């Protein structure tokens, strides 16, 4: 059960919708701070501790995708739930690639919003992680599922929520060839191929973080089939 004192940053320029969403969040046990633009919201992340961001894509000063990119560029791994009227696959994929964790299309039911928010926070806090991950080794790295990072005693590598989810899926299917379709379903909850390179881009990003220079990659590409992962190289 999630604790009920979590603090949510709500970024929504529609005043009436923001009022209603803030009410829903408060009734669900969250505290909520509202801002109507990306420029007003971004400085707050360095000033106050938030547990998640609920973010409209269609903001007046910058779109929500750009806001998330800035959040990640500033080193914040806080979960982000998009709320938007843009429901096509291209926008959803762009949202995930920019660093978002969940994507809710307007109009939505309060139950859907809260479920997506809770799922994003659970993933961030390491709830329901595979038991073996607590002591799992990955080459020179030791995995820390609570803080979602890798460390080797001298160096620490932070993983974003989606990167950690991808790593979990790869670890659970080690030495098996995993197709892009399979990874889209397990990591992004997309049930069909959207025709973008979202999987390839995330694989490349994860390689840069977990591979050791001069050693074989943990992630090998199998041409025309997908990827094979091994924890020992």
TrEMBL record:
Q: Does the keyword Transcription apply?
A: yes
Task: Please give the residue positions where the record annotates the modification 4-aspartylphosphate.
Answer: 56
Q: Which residues bind DNA?
A: 133-231
Segments crossing the lipid bilayer: none
Keywords attached to this Swiss-Prot or TrEMBL record, sorted alphabetically, are:
DNA-binding, Phosphoprotein, Transcription, Transcription regulation, Two-component regulatory system
Provide an example Pfam family for this protein: Response_reg
A GO MF term: phosphorelay response regulator activity
Entry GO CC: cytosol; protein-DNA complex
| Response regulatory domain span | 7-121
Q: Which GO terms describe its biological process?
A: regulation of DNA-templated transcription
Q: Which residues form the OmpR/PhoB-type domain?
A: 133-231
Q: What is this protein called?
A: DNA-binding response OmpR family regulator
């Amino acid at each position: 059960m999630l604790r009920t004192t979590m603090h949510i940053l709500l970024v929504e320029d529609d005043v009436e919708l923001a009022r209603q969403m803030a009410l829903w969040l408060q009734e669900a046990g969250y505290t909520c701070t509202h801002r109507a633009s990306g420029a007003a919201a971004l400085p707050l992340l360095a000033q106050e501790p938030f547990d998640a961001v609920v973010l409209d894509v269609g903001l007046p000063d910058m779109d929500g995708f750009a806001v998330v990119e800035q959040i990640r560029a500033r080193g914040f791994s806080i979960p982000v739930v998009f709320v938007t009227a843009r429901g096509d696959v291209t926008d959803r994929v762009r949202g995930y690639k920019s660093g978002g964790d969940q994507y809710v299309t307007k109009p939505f039911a309060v139950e859907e919003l809260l479920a997506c928010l809770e799922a994003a926070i659970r993933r961030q806090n390491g709830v329901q992680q595979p038991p073996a991950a607590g002591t799992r080794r990955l080459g020179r790295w030791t995995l820390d599922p609570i803080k979602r990072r890798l460390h080797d005693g001298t160096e620490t590598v932070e993983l974003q929520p989606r990167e950690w989810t991808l790593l979990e899926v790869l670890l659970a299917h080690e030495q098996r060839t995993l197709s892009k379709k399979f990874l889209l379903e397990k990591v992004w909850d997309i049930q069909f191929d959207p025709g973008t390179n979202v999987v390839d881009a995330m694989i490349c990003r994860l390689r840069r973080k977990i591979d050791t220079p001069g050693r074989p990659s943990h992630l090998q590409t199998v041409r025309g089939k997908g990827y094979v992962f091994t924890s020992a190289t």
